[in-house]
Amino acid sequence: MKPPRALPSGSLLAAALLALVASSAGAAAEAFAAAPDYSARATYRWTENISRASGPGDFRDTGEYELSATASFKRQLTPRVFANLDFTLTGTTSPEYELLDRIEFGPRLTLKRKFGLGPYAPTLSAAATLTGRYAALHAQDGIGARGSLTFAKRFDSWIAASVSGEWAGHVAERSAFSVAHWAADASLILDPHPRLRFTTGVSRLEGTLTVSASRNRFVNGALAGALGPKVASYFARIPKADTNIFSPAWVSYRLEGYVDSWWFDLSPALTEHTSLSLRYERNHAESIVQTEYSQDILSVSINHAF
Amino acid sequence: MLRLRPALLLFTLACGGLQLFAQTGFEALVRTAEGKPVADAILSLTPLDGQALPAAPAPTAPAARISQIGQEYEPLVTPIRTGSPIEFPNLDTVQHHIYSVSKPKRFEIPLYDRGRTEIVVFENPGVVTLGCNIHDWMLAYVVVLDTPWFAKSSTEGRAALANLPAGRYRLDLWHPRLAKPITREITLAAAPAAAPEEFTVTLRPDRRLRRAPAPGAGSGY
Ligand SMILES: [Cu+2]
């Protein structure tokens, strides 16, 4: 897949997006003719191999703190069609690697068609998201767009399932961070008790992704032919950037490949408005030149709807 | 003596009438096997001796109100007499979409904006389950009854009926989490019983849908 062309200034685009969001928020409030619902989420996430490195010597593990706030305008357009316009602001910080710090913001419009009445009626949702990113590592500043189609069905009070497909792209200041992918996922929701939710899912993503390696391993290893001539010639022509993201002399580069993910989430409801979420995610990625890496991600979140 | 006879006759008739139309009462105490009081149970008594039920008053005003407030229905259970109207004010700042797919009354009111109040008449007896097509966790029950003698149990599990004629009745006890309503025949004496009649019930687990926020997305590629 051909990734989007890098634009000269991701931060300029991000600023323009912020202005667009600010002006459209007022218009949306008027159009939706109601006060928004607010929600917030605080997350601590521990990622093993956050560097997305193939060689064990370059594995970096770290924790990140994330705060996210959403204003959500909801409107029933016809008896069976619902619209949701969300504005989300997310801030992420990593005490260990400050170049991972970032702020993301933007609107998301969801149109949901319900085929019938009640919780068991199947639904088809189309969502479009625009996200501006402003990061400590300016190379990844820019705008992302995401479009998805989700089909969901609840079978009983204790079981529901959904499948979805999406396209997502991000245009960054440096092309090593401009990525695009297609993804498909399936998830199963189990509610053994009204206060306990267990969710599990699998997904496959195909497209471009940004990974990283220490400069020594990348230049003197892969580029020099340590992983074979095919990898060396592929690595020579892919977009890359010196980012020093995990330590001095560190390279980020963009690969074509796929990522298979499997995850589960245990979410007890603390109150009608607050829930906890304990999540484990396993990612395995492989590039078109057969380099691969894996990640384990553990996170705990508290979600609150005001 | 002759002059006294009409007065005596009147007195006798009055006493007989009192005997015939003696007003009594009935109280139920509903609890679980563990002794926890059960609220929202509907007790109803239907006469079995063929006497005509008192006519329902013409529905000039709503017999009950079920509010949409805080994205819930309030109250959870509402008993009414057949043919009665219920008003449904939307006291929230958000839209709702009331619906019922229950046989005694199928209806839906979509695009139900804040500040609106709709009135719905329930013409047929039975239990009507109400949902909201926007907020899946919202739930309410309307119990539509032919008899005028019904009561809802309080948080102490007590449901009391007063001013009903002595005689034979079919007693029905319904609760949203009762697997099968309790039905039995009872005879009410002219003098109400000193103690409430106790009902021990087994409630099914609460299968209401979760309202708490869903977990967020993953790490995001
Ligand atoms: Cu609602």
Describe the structure.
The complex is a heterodimer of chains A (306) and B (221). With 306 residues, chain A is mainly beta. Chain A has three helices and 13 strands. A twelve-stranded antiparallel beta barrel of chain A has the order 1-2-3-4-5-6-7-8-9-11-12-13. Chain A starts with 9 loop residues before the first helix and ends with a strand. By secondary structure, chain B is mainly β. Chain B has one domain (1-48, 61-200): Cupredoxins -  blue copper proteins (Immunoglobulin-like, Sandwich), CATH 2.60.40.420. Chain B contains one helix and 17 strands. In chain B, the strands form five sheets. Chain B has a five-stranded mixed beta sheet, with no helix packed on it. Chain B is globular. Mean pLDDT of chain B is 86; it is low at 4-20. The interface between A and B is large, with 56 and 29 residues. Bound molecules: copper (II) ion. The site of copper (II) ion has 6 residues of chain B, from loops. Copper (II) ion is lined by residues 71, 96, 132, 134-135, 138 of chain B.
Summarize the entry for a quick read.
The complex is a heterodimer of chains A (306) and B (221). Chain A is built from 3 helices and 13 strands, in the order αβββββββββααββββ.
List strands and helices in order, with pairings.
The complex is a heterodimer of chains A (306) and B (221).
Chain A: H1 10-32, E1 37-48, E2 62-78, E3 81-93, E4 102-114, E5 123-135, E6 142-156, E7 159-172, E8 179-193, E9 196-214, H2 215-223, H3 229-237, E10 240-242, E11 250-268, E12 274-287, E13 292-305
Antiparallel strand pairs in A: 1-2, 1-13, 2-3, 3-4, 4-5, 5-6, 6-7, 7-8, 8-9, 9-11, 10-11, 11-12, 12-13
Chain B: H1 5-20, E1 23-32, E2 42-47, E3 64-65, E4 67-69, E5 72-74, E6 77-81, E7 84-89, E8 96-102, E9 105-112, E10 117-122, E11 126-132, E12 139-145, E13 150-152, E14 158-165, E15 167-174, E16 182-188, E17 197-201
Bound molecules: copper (II) ion (CU).
